Every structure is written in C-alpha cells, then in structure tokens.
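Morning!

This is the sequence you dropped in the shared folder:
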Amino acid sequence: MKLKYQYAIQPIADSFMAMAITEEQKAQNTLLRVNQTGKDMLEMLQQDTTEEELVKKLMEQYEAAEPVIRESVQKFITELNAKGLLD
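The structure's back. Tokens below.
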C-alpha cells in the first residue's frame, strides 16, 4: 500500500501538517494534521510498503510494545483508507 498523493510535511507547534503537493490534490481536501508517529508513517507510505514493514520500522524508532505499535498502525491505515488516501 502507499499514499495516493505526495505530501509536503511541515512542523506546526507540537504537530505536523501534511499537505498534498499539486493543486489537483489540494482540491481533494488532503490536508492532514498528525503527530510525530503519524508523520513517520506518512513518510514511509510515500513508498509502497506493508503493514508489517510499518510496524517493524516503528518498533526500531520507538520504545513501545509491539501490540501498541500495531494498533496505532492499524488505526492510522483505517483512517487513511476511510478518507480514500491509500492505493
């Protein structure tokens, strides 16, 4: 799976804003506000990746139990799918 659109990600206060790069994509209302973990997942999803790869990479970056990371990944993927942002 991967994102349908390419995003520019900028820090805003204690979170990040991810904005679609082209005008056509902007018209699809693809502005996202995410935390650090969401930013990391969006960056990974710019390339084709699997849920397992996301979990593995996040486990390398964060000190959290695998079930906690897996739940976060699944929730994020579900939200992106609900918005039609994943291929």
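Headline: Residues 6 and 59 are 24 Å apart (CA to CA).

More detail when I'm at my desk.
O.
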